[in-house]
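#structure-requests
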Amino acid sequence: MAGKQGSQAVSRWVWVSLAALVLLALAVIFVLPGVVERYELPLVKRPEPAATEVVAGSSANSGRNSGGNVSPFEEAQQARQRRAAQDILASLLERQSELEAFAVEEWAPDAFESALAQAEEGDVFYRQGAFEQAETLYQQADDGLAALQSARDNEYQSAMARGETAMTDGDAEAATAAFELASRIQPSSQAAADALDRARVLEDVLALLAEGQALAESGQLESARDRYQKALGLDAAHPQAQSLASDIEQQIIDRNFSTAMSAGFTSLQAGDTDAAISAFENALAIKPGSDQAEAAIQQARDQVEMSEIARLREQAEDHEENERWQEAVEAYQQALNLDANLVFAQEGKDYSQRRLQLDQLMQANLDDPLRLSDQAVYQEAQNLLGVATGLVADLREDGVHPGDRLLSQVDELAVVLEKVVIPKNITLNSDGMTSVTLYRVAELGTFEQTTVSLTPGRYVAVGTRSGYRDVREEFVVGLDDAPAAVSIRCHDQIASAE
């Protein structure tokens, strides 16, 4: 029973809902068209048909309305024309709002007002129900505003160009006005915002540049550079500030470079090559890669080298004059280390080496004349003396003093060679039981005393005796002196084994 009652209740609500929907549909069909016919959004009352008929003024309209009634077809046409006018009006209003946001009244007031005037004229026709004429005027106004929208970018560029020209001319007021307009035309433009910032500090920038130029003219280059840098701090894009800052940097570099080069040449002229090279290297650091500085450094180094070569040449020649041949060779070699192509050093070294060799050989014979007792050595000394004698003759023929050392060596060696072949009588004493042998001379046998003739030299006498230890006696026969006697006896008896 309860279930049946519930089912009846649901059926009753379904029929109520259906009835409500039917009533709503009837309202849409019969009531809403009347509202739409008399009103248009936003619920503005339509003009009376009679008024429309009067404004239109055409015979066709008069005929259609002569009875005071509008046909359904004419009503549909008017609705279509009304919607078309409204659509264009919506576009026009959107363009108007956008253009006003972009300050159109500042850059195209006449064209903007003209378009709005056409729109207002269209409003008159619209209110009178002459939708077709209203549509035409709305369209003309919309086209005018569309043209202004298209011209906005050109107007922006024109304002920016005027601002840049004013910046170049130094007209801060005109530049500020132009960039402010550009910012309103294109509110999102960062370029316009940056340009406006530059324009607002233009007067300060120009004042700093003027101060800098005055300082530069008075030679205060660093102070001028400071002003230009401050100007760039305010406007890094200012072309004159950039140019002046670049120019002053170059002027400072040129001045410092010139100062360093002048100091270098002054030192070079004074003979202080170390200071000159230091100054030229400082100039090269100021202007890296400068051909002038590099050439000056090379010139200073060449001068140092030339001075050193001249010093070494003078030193070598002094050594030659004093017959210090080893020192002369070393001096010439040092010069060749600086420049291997120096002819004087090549020739001087060769000559000094030959003289050094001659000197060493001559002196070796004089320091140890007894070595000449060897026949081969004696012959070499003879040849050496011939060379030295010939050299003395050649030097004298060339008008050159041979040198006291060489002359002395020639004279001394000649005397030595004469003395070394003169024999001297040497007395040898023994005990008559020792057999004596004189090395490289003869076996003398046993004797108590004998005399031998010996040329200067070193000698060794050996004595032997059965049952006694051998004896060995070394003695020297000098050029000017000789031992009075040489004793050779075996006196150490060897003990016999038991």
